[in-house]
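Hey, quick one: can you model this chain's 3D structure?
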Amino acid sequence: MKKFFNVLLALFAMLLLVSCLPQKKSEQRDPVVPQEPEQEQVELSAAEAAALLDAVNLSESGKNVFSLETEIDLQFLITLPAPEEPGAEEPEDVGLKIDGSVNVYADVQEFVGSYIYANVNLSYELVGDIDAFLAPYLEMLMLLAEPPFSLADYSRASVVADIYVIEGIAYVDATITIAGVELSFKRYDVMFTAEDFAASEGEVPGEEGMNITEADILELLEKADLTTYKIGDLYDFIISMRQEDFEALIQEMIADMLGEMLPPGTLVTVTHNGEFRNEISLKFSQKLERVKFTSKMDVLIDVSAIGAQFGINEVVIKTNISVDANFKARMPENLPGVEEFADYEQGIDMSIFGPLMPQPE
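Sure thing. Here's the predicted structure for all 361 residues.
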């Protein structure tokens, strides 16, 4: 089961890396938007699908503009066991909530005229007394920190930022808020030079370590449902994780973590509330053109049979996440030019975040 996620993670890592590579000059032309052909569902065996995916040229997938649009709504909550003492107060849940979006658009065919724009709007919240829950694991780290470290100092945070990288110079307009303390700045610095850009042409860093073989794809398809569409010369593969395989994955992960500590015959109960959808869509011909990942679920995992010794009763996971990577995108309209950043200060380093750091009392 781990291969299911390993293959998807490797694929996402590879497509993000290749998206930032300069493209061959032969591909430098204005995008043409033809009328899209009708979509037709086709039947393929797992072996046929694996062979088609294995033949996709990942290192030359980009064409004109790459975009990555992400929406995130994630909740991970842990319900603590009820106290044994009569009349004791019920403990509150602990966990993490993340909400927001990250959108990136990149035109990096050549260094001259290259432009990357990113918009970030993210926030998180730590729920409950995380310090007390993690104390047995983080006690030494918290004592050694100067000033003394407490996660309560970082219980809420948000980042709202527009980032413009024009011919290697990054201009950042950001507002960061941590525990009610707000820091806003407009700064610029060198992100990469013309030499860096030229040196990266045609290279995919870490490509050997992320190689996805036909055998890997076949193993993935054994643990997932495949729906295949043909759109002209394009294929659209929708690979969906089955609900029962997700439950088996949870059981396997717990068994791996606990090993011999897991009592014989212990079961972990997984309850689904509403829609369960975890899928990836791959649109390609000879090159990868679009990848979209969707995760939507509301799952309660009852670990009370084994969790008491770890201070855990139930785990709730709620996701509503979409990640859309498009290798044939368009840049947003009306992006600013260099002249509009004249009031930005030079230098982006950790020192500017000093006001957000907890201060000694």
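One thing worth noting: Confidence is low (pLDDT under 50) at residues 1-29, 202-210.
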